[in-house]
Write a structure and sequence with these properties.
about 450 residues, alpha+beta, 8-stranded mixed β-sheet, 3-stranded mixed β-sheet
Amino acid sequence: MTLPWLGDACSLVDAMRAGDVSPLEAVDSCLDAIQASQLNAFSHLDPDAARVAARDADPSLPFGGLPIGVKELEQAEGWPDTHASVALKDRTAPVDSIQVARLRAAGAIPLGLTTASEFGFVGYTSTKLNGTTRNPWNHQRTPGGSSGGSAATVAGGVVPLATASDGGGSIRIPAGFCGLVGLKTTGGRIPRGPNSGFGTLTSVVGCVSRSVRDTARWLDVCNGYDHRDPYSLPRTEGWEAGLGRHNLKGLRAVVNIDLGKATVHPEVAAMVQRAAAQLIDDAGLEQVDVAIDLPDSGVDWALAGLPGLVGTVGDLWPEHADDFTFEIRYGLEHAKYFRARHAAGGETYRSAVVAEMARIFDQTDLLICATNPYEAFAAEGPSPRYVGEVKVDPYTAGTLTRAGNISGHPAISIPVGTTASGLPVGLQVYTNRFDEARLLDLALAVERARPWPLVAPGTPL
């Protein structure tokens, strides 16, 4: 087997432009790696279409000839549209999502669908439909969720780039667990749709990548208004060209590892604290103290997504109840009790988060915390009930990431090292809406000062 490209996506495009690698060679090496992989990170492959696209590829395009994975919660025309659920196993996507269509137009070649947690609900990737996806750093551990397959295959050296989405941390959580860059953009930066629901919480689409410039180029390709998404933002140019050109010196930064609510494992907390201090010094930031009092309610967050879940499942419930994972079945069983007061509670919760984030960013430019409260846990799940010796509510697992989804603020997970057991840890930075360029430049500063491994040791596996 010819090894797939183990550098970042942009360097593979450069190699294809130089004639060192052909698009067909790149595609075939990735397809071979997928077949040989032990990660169980793909749920569907379309090798014939990928090879046809590779023969016609134009490497002069931003992602010309680049093999990618598409998260299975996203639509690709003619491919399964299952939401990672056995109950929906026979559904097929009628069209490409807006993001996938833009990637194809930029020359990217989708190889297939990467695994996700069912309906994107939990922070690990193990379903009745696809089985368990594994972290390339340690196969006994999870790559996270819901974009677990995308993170596993990119960190595992199998494909250089993959789509992802984030409704409560589903880009940042897997990026943190797998040692990747994971940017959750301002709500609306990349359009959703054309067949997405638009709920009360801000879910975004994007990618998980090996480098900051890969994510910046992704934004260049995918951002910009589309009339099929009424919340999408106007197009902004120059994400990749602008890397490193923004003055970070003097920006105010708050370091609050647990956001005042999460229980973070001491080893993870210490690593993030050290990395935050180094980032502040490297970038010339001004550390300030701001009290953090973010309301957090995993229950309200889960309830806010319940109407959309019921609408997607439709008349498959309750006849196919046994086809769903426990968490989805539990939600659907309780949907009959959902009342206007629950919707009102979710809206009150969202308003409180928005108000507190506004108060915080009146006093600072950056909010630095951990991405995950612990290192990657068991691949089969569930989310840990204990952090060290402290018992925690499993709904608190997303405490560190949910605020960005609820308020619409952008946030990025940056790799900052590994624990004693050799598992990656991510540092997370929030900033003001529309200021993703700051986050990319901060990540670039870390990448240049302390480069991280682009793939897990020993990959591809």
